[in-house]
Amino acid sequence: MMMIGPKKEKLKLSGFNNLTKVLSFNLYDFCITLNDKEREEYIQWINEQYSAERITKISEEICKIIKANILGVSKQDYDPVGASTMVLMSDYMGGGWDATHQPKSSQVNMHLDKSHITAHTYPEAGDPNGICSFRVDIDIATCGEISPLNAVNYLFESFECDLVYVDYVVRGFTRLEDGTKIYNDSYFNSIQEFIRPEILNDYEYRLDLNIPNDNIWQTKLMIKDFPVERYLMHPEEKNHPYCASKMELLKEEMFEIFRLKS
Question: Looking at the DSSP assignment, which residues form a beta bridge with residue 209?
Fold first, then answer.
């Protein structure tokens, strides 16, 4: 990881780390439907693939990656589409996990480190031209030493990401042993430093907004390749006479969301 200034030793705090670190991972996946039947198939597929149960499992895996202890889970599927989940967690203090993702050690200060993961899905199939989209908004808010940035590659792997917004913000402050206040406990230049190169190589448009003095970072990415079969409910229909015009509409939609077109 690229650092600003010399690499620092682990901070010695006067108490617990009270900084709140929030990673917001917002992704879009697009699909072309050629008729009403395919539109219905798309909604059914989304409800099956990205149900509250599936999103909860992704959230639980995030907890393992960032070494957090799960305190409680809430999940909800909506009619006709969409799902929401919330996982409450706390900083993990060693000992490993048991089969239910709980720590084997009892040394967890649950009332001191307050963290959570929320996820909401937003399927959209109302476009009259048949351009459907699926958006997932996942927020990982942590206190203590755990960092949500460690989960960013897993999030890319868990979804088909055509367009991605990643925001990272640090708020609050904590104190060193000598009483000095600090407003961030890690030093880096860009969120992209945490994304593996092979993942970044899949994206042609990469925009960065970095305001380290205010502890605000944002990365926007849009996919590089647009093979038509990637966006069809039935890839064997790639030679359908409407596919070319539908692909142009899909790209226009993506450029508009990415803010490459006003």
Answer: 218
